[in-house]
Amino acid sequence: MKSHEIFTTIDPAIVAEILDWFRANDKNVYKTVISTLAADRKLRPVFVQKKSLQEQYAWVQKTLQIRACDAVGEQLMQAYLMSAQQKMLAMFCDGLGIEHDGKGSVSGALPKELDKAKLDETVEKLVDVFDPKIFTLYLLCFNMQVAGGYAALTEKLATDDRLKLA
After folding, report:
1. DSSP string covering 14-35
2. What is the mean pLDDT of the chain?
3. In terms of Cα–Cα distance, which of 18, 69, 19, 16 is closest to 43?
4. C-alpha 160: how far from chain center
5. What is the pLDDT of residues 106-161, one digit of tens each?
6. CA 54 to CA 130: how far, in whole Å?
7. At residue 166, does pLDDT exceed 90?
8. N or C: fewer beta carbons within 10 Å in the chain?
9. Residues in contact with 140: Cβ distance below 8 Å, sequence separation at least 6, in sequence order
10. What average pLDDT score do residues 20-45 get?
11. Is 106 helix (H, G, I), strand (E, B) or coil?
């Protein structure tokens, strides 16, 4: 699943949570997203900034649904997960036996395949600990890190009803 597809199906409340987090913790990222997306759409950033926050968030989500904005969308999701969800990332890596820096950033190369039993066990544990939609977002982003995704993770995302974005 590509970034624009994720932003097509994701619950708008999750997009608002991500954007709220950046507005509270790293305003430069929020401003850069608005500026970059506005420039991509041949608009001045002030056009978006004059809107209410709710309208800004809706505009960002709608714009990130465009295939040409995949890079911005993917970077936004990754930056959020790496900054705001470090505990979840670290626990996921621990569950799969993937070496990381203690904050969820993988040390070295990603594995070529994921152990299905470890994946199932880790998902069972973490889906109840974290918001299932945020956890699903992480799994989708993790799966985008290798060409074609991981077969076991792709299957898990397709068959586990708890792992839905909307």
Report:
1. HHHHHHHHHHHH-HHHHHHHHH
2. 95
3. 69
4. 18
5. 988 899 999 999 999 999 999 999 999 999 999 999 999 999 999 999 999 999 99
6. 25
7. no
8. C
9. 1, 6, 157, 165
10. 95
11. strand
Q: Measure the CA–CA gap between 109 and 126, rounded to whole angstroms.
A: 23
Tokens of 96: 């799969």
Residues 6+ apart with CB under 8 A from 54: 16
Helix boundaries (H) for 41-150 = 45-49, 53-64, 70-84, 86-96, 116-126, 132-143
Cβ 60 vs Cβ 19: under 8 Å: yes
**What does the pLDDT read at residue 62?**
97
The residue type found at 31 is K
- 77 Cβ contact partners less than 8 Å away, ≥ 6 residues apart: 3, 6, 18, 137, 141
Q: Which residues pair with 100 in a beta bridge?
A: 106
Q: How far apart are CA 108 and CA 118, in angstroms?
A: 20
54-66 tens-digit pLDDT: 999 999 999 999 9
Residue type, 159: T
Tokens of 13: 């409340």
Question: CA 146, CA 103: separation in Å to the nearest integer?
Answer: 20
pTM for the structure as a whole: 0.92
